[in-house]
Request: fold
Amino acid sequence: MSRRPIPSTMNSAGSTPQRKAIELSEDDRHFSMLRQLHLADFITELNGFCGIMSIFSSLRYCLGAPDDLSNLWVSMGFMPFGLFFDFMDGKVARWRKKSSLMGQELDSLADLISFGMAPAACAFSIGFRTTLDTLILTFFVLCGLSRLARFNVTVQLLPKDASGKSKYFEGTPIPTTLSIVSIMAYWCSQHWILDDLPLGVWGAGTMLEFHPVVLLFALHGCAMVSKSIHIPKL
Reply:
């Protein structure tokens, strides 16, 4: 989650965010939405691009030979690039002192794809495929969705430092899900996937069949929506 600057109540031109929203909705020129985007927004789109390509690569692995891990490596490789673009969009917005009204929403949606859906799709591909596995992965993604929504609503109310930046994140930021991706990468390097996932499967052949290591995703989801966990901003 980049620290994209939030449009203030009054910008340098004297127009309010509400006025800019009206201008955006009433702009009927061709490609009017693209005209409203700034450089930082296009960098955010690259974050979303990486997440989408990661998901497609995970799906390609499911369609191919189980011992060919090339698509899995591509899938996991796209996610750090998404983090790079997530970091750079805020840097560019502050450098150019320009941000659009859509910037914060684009940032959250791109983060959900790259650090929520993409890791979940990769986890499904490497073997978390039982009904209970997928319910836990769904819980993980929904926690990320809720965490991003809360951030957008409360970011203006969090304590600020002298520069006007929030002092901390409430709950773990969604890009920290890459820590789980790094664990999955290690499993792939050891070929601990599909039927060889660590700790095996519990309740095999029952409705409650699941892989216990999938609980890593549940724990991380809970950490993301926690209000008591405060992560200092660097």
